[in-house]
Amino acid sequence: MKFISKSVLFSLLAITAFQAQAQKRDGLTMWYDKPAVRWEETLPLGNGLIGMMPDGGVQSESLVLNEISMWSGSAEDPNNYEAYKSVNAIQQLLMAGKNNEAEELVNKNFVCSGQGSAFGTGANAPYGCYQNFGYLKFNHAIQAKDISKYERSLQIGNATANTSFSAHGVDYKRTYYTSFDKNVGVIHLTASKKKSISFSVALERAENIDSYQIKDGEIVLLGSLPDGKGGKNLQFASKVKIVFKGGKLTDDGKQLLLKDADEATVLFTASTNYYGTNPQEVIARNIEAIEKITEKKRFNNHTKAFAKKFDRVALTIADDQSKFDIPTAQRLQQFFENPALDNGLAALYFQFGRYLSISSTAPEQVNALPPNLQGLWAHQIQTPWNGDYHLNINAQMNHWGVEVSNLSEYHNPFIAMIKRIAKTGEKTAKAYYNAPGWVVYMMTNVWGYSAPGENASWGASTASGWLCNHLWEHYLFTQDKSYLKDVYPVLKGAAEFYNHILVKDPKTGWLVTSPSVSPENGFRLPDGKGASVVMGPTIDNQIVRELYENLIQADSLLNLNDPFIQQLKGKLSQIPPAVVISKSGRVQEWLEDYAEVEPQHRHVSHLYGLYPANFISPQKNKAWADAARKTLEVRGDEGTGWSRAWKILFWARLQDGDHSLEILRQLLKPAFVNETTYQGVGAGTYPNLFCAHPPFQIDGNFGGSAGIAEMLLQSHAGFIHLLPALPKAWKDGAVKGLKARGNYTVDVSWKDGKVVDYKIAGPNKALVKVLIGTEYQDYQIK
């Protein structure tokens, strides 16, 4: 295959993704022609520690405020230390085909002690809940009538939001950002006429405020959240300060009042004692570090710090740039009607996912927390499902895109959480199986919860093996052997647990987990009754096989000669194959070919081997790939937001770009009927591009963005595959800076659906195997 020299597409790419940020609207801009009337229209800003979401109101304006560690609850020991005594009885019932009786015993003896997550309402339970921090409430001395030229926008290329409009002959502009240079939220207000800026501002929170003081032109709010045991635990603090030119600042004891200013900057910061620091001292330092520098310098420092992360990757898919002048909510509707008419929205959505990753966790922070079910953005005290970390796909999906999209360090807070939970998980392994190693089940919080959930049907699946997939993937992308040595004991601990608890299935002779479930799904027994608890669901078999194979490889890479590895090698032949094809030609979900209770169930856990694992590939095993394809066809394209995102990745791995684009179309379905009807219509995407589960869950955003990357680049099957699932609609384009396993950086440009130029860079002068179309090539890294 002949390649031309560096194509013009890369030049266009650079202009679109990097230089055009200075223009009013570009391919990285979301914009709207009216203020937000609901939270799902407000625009997310965050620096991984604090978040702000302005609604862009003209007269009355509200900013939702967040802080990533704002958790109620406290550490507890939710393990049932008598549970292991029931394991044998449960397993015997399962072997006898008495699944319902086994499930009753699991629900009685094999769940958590205490309240657990309080079924997702744990704000006042020990489990706790991620909570909204509060609201910054403005009242501007502007009449809301006679407004013209209104626009609010989010420039994801520089992590900045804007609201602008004209009123009574004056042009007003407000710029908002959460500084990536200092941990401070900034709202900068300007007007075309002097003495035109007058407003009041208050800091509000619904509950658990210990003190609210205004002194020396500052608001200081202090509070503490309930520990779920009748006392207080997490302490929080925040400060608001106004820096201004002209005018006069006063207060009335509840709010700050600025009158007749020429220019003003409102600074907000917040912190908690979760990080082992005094939050009052932290907020004082934060404000002091930024208040006396010029706004120009503040802004430049912020954008430079953000650009170091965001500008690593650029994507252009050839399109009519006039789409940039259509408000984003209308673009969503048009994309849903025909995605081929707005390729730029797909590129924007990919970069929005990267933007959310950078904005919702701060890997440089000591004890940094990974993004939770809502990233770091929440507008409620009791967030849905506690805003926690669901470990049967959701927290994992939050990190599927970070490596390939060149944000590898944004995996680190999650990896650190996995290492921490492995410690508490050692107690859980003892309590429920009297086993060595560690285990965690389908949910966790910032306090180290590792026990099962409150109900077998959704809370009985182990997640430790799935979490180890992330430890291994981070190594594959970084090739950092010192890191691998550090996490080797965590990988080994998970394998030791599974090695101890596997039992022989009397019908097949295979070694399988027991009891377990295929996450949140059920089946019909021969007598017609529904059940969930089984032995050896397919996802478990795939996870255990993957974990054993990865640990064996890690031992070899590190030259450890660990005696335990010989045990695992002996067990591999006794574990079920990664795929069993059912009589219907599909990937079988359970050890037995049960009838499904819900054939179109949102979880497709038995395709774990297709994604995120690498067992199924059209190049490696066509029969398995065909079975996976048939599984997806029967499962259907519908589902919750995150379910649709997963299906984008499935179809990308099956190298069907047009079907991936079809699922992306459905993922971007407007989640509201129209701009004036607020009743949700199901899964899809909200006007601010947040994913609708519904309600909002950020995993769909991250999964959808990862799916777009997977359509452009794959590296899981032993070679680098360029444009493996390119839709016909994405005829021309270029992507720069994606990462492949092996620590390779990949640039690709294409025209008429064909690669016209590519470049691979890496740390060593390696010879890399590359697949383009159906042709393999050897690429020498220079």
Structure description:
The protein is an alpha+beta fold. Among the domains are: 1-32 and 315-379 and 637-782, no CATH class; 34-69 and 131-311, Beta-galactosidase, Chain A, domain 5. Helices cover 30% and strands 23% of the residues. The chain has 18 helices and 31 strands. Strands 1, 2, 3, 4, 5, 6, 7, 8, 9, 10, 11, 12, 13 and 14 form a 14-stranded antiparallel β-sheet that branches. The chain is globular.
How would you sum up this structure in a few lines?
With 782 residues, this protein is of the alpha+beta class. Helix content is 30%, strand content 23%.
Keywords:
disordered N terminus, Beta-galactosidase, Chain A, domain 5, 23% strand, single chain, four-stranded antiparallel sheet, alpha+beta, 14-stranded antiparallel sheet, 782 residues, 18 helices
Q: Point out poorly predicted stretches.
A: 1-23
Determine the strand fraction and express it as a percent band: 15-25%
Number of strands: 31
Instruction: Kindly provide the radius of gyration, computed on alpha-carbon positions and rounded to a whole number of angstroms.
Output: 26 Å
Assembly type of the chains comes to single chain
* First-last Cα distance: 20 Å
Calculate the mean pLDDT score and round it: 94
- Helix percentage: 25-40%
User: Count of helices?
Assistant: 18
Largest sheet: 14 strands, antiparallel
Structural class: alpha+beta
Overall 3D shape: globular
